[in-house]
Amino acid sequence: MLAGLARLQLGLAGLGALLLFVWPLLPFLFVWLFDALGGKEHPAVFGAAFGCSVLALLPPASLMGATFPFAVRGAMGDGEHVAAPVGRVYAANTFGGVLGAVGAGFVVLPALGLQAGLALAAAVNALTAALAWSRGGAAGSPRWR
Asked: Residue 78: helix, strand or coil by DSSP?
């Protein structure tokens, strides 16, 4: 399981690095779509904006959502019921979500900006992948312990 978690985190790191190059192009893509639709208020303009957002956000959001089951399985011990590891991982996920939102909004983005913030997030995902891989991904052990 940790090998799967490592692959997901490595995928997030790769998407984060790719987003460093794609993000600055999204406004130009939207303007190109706006011009292609006649350059006026049109219902398809909303669809173009939505499509640009989906292009940037859906792949990493999907990988982030897929990490939770892998993290739960990696946290399970031998003979342990599922409730305790799910509770621990859920608590860590909630704490990390709050800390990440506050840290990104009030510390990372004001201090580093969007590009460096994305690079930092990609580096954290790569470090998480390395940790998961070293803790059992390479050896095939499905446990954190």
From this structure: coil
Q: For tokens 């219902």, what's the residue?
A: 43
Whether 60 contacts 30, CB under 8 Å = no
pLDDT tens-place string over residues 35-61:
887 777 778 778 888 888 898 889 999
Are the beta carbons of 67 and 8 closer than 8 angstroms? yes
Q: Other CB atoms closer than 10 Å to residue 9's CB: what's the count?
A: 25
What is the pTM assigned to this prediction?
0.78
User: Which residue in 92, 103, 100 sits closest to 68, CA to CA?
Assistant: 92
Q: How far is CA 47 from the centre of its chain?
A: 24
CA geometry: angle 37, 41, 44, nearest 5 deg: 50
